[in-house]
Structure formats: structure tokens, C-alpha cells
Amino acid sequence: MFGVIINCITVIVGSVIGMIFKNHIPKKVTDGIMVGIGLCTVYIGVEGSLAGENTLVLILSMAIGASIGFVLDLDGKINSFSEFATRRFKKDDGVNTAEGFVTACLIFCVGAMTLVGSIQAGVNGDNTTLITKAMLDLISSLALASTFGIGVLLSTVFVFLFQGGLVLIASFAGDFLSIGMQNEMICVGSVMIIGLGLNIIGVSKIKVANFIPAMFIAPVITPVLNKFVELIS
């Protein structure tokens, strides 16, 4: 839970700074920091991707996962829900607070980094991805709070409950996953993190959310493919 707590702290700090300084923080400064964090995110993804032991698992997982994700249009559904929620809360009297809360919750809790980071933290206690995400959320909360105010700060409660729940679930599920299955799952997720980092830098517009099913495909096919490799070798 250490990474979740750090994430919540950064959201609180960013929100408070954003509300205090409003729009006086130069955009070029936040843009520069985001690029730096994007590069670090790519590095974290590359490092994690080396955990994989069977390249065939990665290839098939990404292919099958992408097929499912693009057919279901997970990225589109997430964006549609975000737009719906924003329109819904705009009708209320407390426009800024409500919209800020919903927007912040979606930005901080929806995405591959949240899922991968929570699984890594729950399965093997690795909080690297969640802490990297926390740095991203620090900048995001700062920028959002300068517009939406306290609604962004209130989203901290949801962030804690949502990510904390994922970590606990991953911790429980980890007892049923072999080390090899865990490594392949982390490898696939880390490749998605590389895509996320490239998006942050601005060199790509990969719909990372559509690849999320690949993470759940990896542990399922790992035993089968490992057995296949043993038979042909």
C-alpha cells in the first residue's frame, strides 16, 4: 500500500499548490516536467518488460488482448463515460467542484499504469510504477486544481479506495499465480507502460486502454506455451 499512499499524498500536494497559485505557474514549466516524467515512464516500462521469460507469451498476449480491446473499444467506452459524467455534473449547481471531482477520479484511476502498478505492488511489493504514476498525478492534480479547485482534492479519497482495492485483490490473486505467470503479466503490462510513456512525451497516440485485456491473457496462456516450448526443445 506504500505506493498508493504516496500517490494520494502527491494528489493532495498538487491540488493544494494548484489552488494556491492558480494560473501563475508557467505552462512551459509543467510541459517540461511532463516530458521528463514521460521519459522516466518509458525507462520503467523497458525495465519491467525484461521480466518476461517467453517472448511468444508477450506476442500472443498482445495480439489476443488487442483484438479483444479494439473489438470492445475499451478506450472509446472510457472516453464516452468520461464525457457523459462531465456533462451530467455540469447540470448541477456546484459545477466546478463536481466536475473537478469526476474528472480527477477518471484521470487518476483509469489507465494501464494504475492497473499494472497495482498488480506489481500487490504481487511482489514493487511500488515503482505507482510512484512514477504519483509523479504524473502531482502535475495533473496541480493543473486540474487551478481550474476546478477543491473537487480535485476530494478525489484523493476515491484514489485511495480504488487503487488500494486493486492492490489487495492482486495480493490475494498472487497466491494462485506462479512466478513465471507473474513475470509474463508484468512484462506485458510494462510494454503497455512504454506506450503510455511515448504518449506522454507526445511521440505517439497509442490507445493503451485497448491493450488492457492482454495482461489477463498472459497468465492464462503462459503454462500452455511453456509446456509447448519444453516439448519442442
Outline the structure in words:
With 233 residues, the protein is mainly α. It has one domain (2-232). The protein is built from ten helices and no strands. The protein has helices spanning 2-21, 27-49, 55-72, 74-90, 95-109, 112-124, 128-148, 150-173, 179-201, 213-232. Helix 2 (27-49) runs antiparallel to helix 9 (179-201) and helix 3 (55-72) packs antiparallel against helix 10. Mean pLDDT is 81; it is low at 91-95.
What is the count of DSSP helices, taking H or I runs of 4+ residues?
Answer: 10
Residue stretches low in confidence (pLDDT < 50, at least 5 long) are 91-95
Number of strands: 0
- Calculate the terminal CA-CA distance, rounded to whole Å: 41 Å
Q: Specify Rg, calculated over alpha carbons.
A: 18 Å
Tally the structural domains: 1
Helix content: over 70%
What is the residue-averaged pLDDT? Answer: 81
Overall shape: it is: elongated
* Structural class determined from secondary elements: mainly alpha
Report the sheet-strand fraction. Answer: under 5%
Question: Any key phrases for this structure?
Answer:
mainly alpha, 10 helices, 233 residues
List the helices and strands and how they pair.
Blueprint: H1 2-21, H2 27-49, H3 55-72, H4 74-90, H5 95-109, H6 112-124, H7 128-148, H8 150-173, H9 179-201, H10 213-232
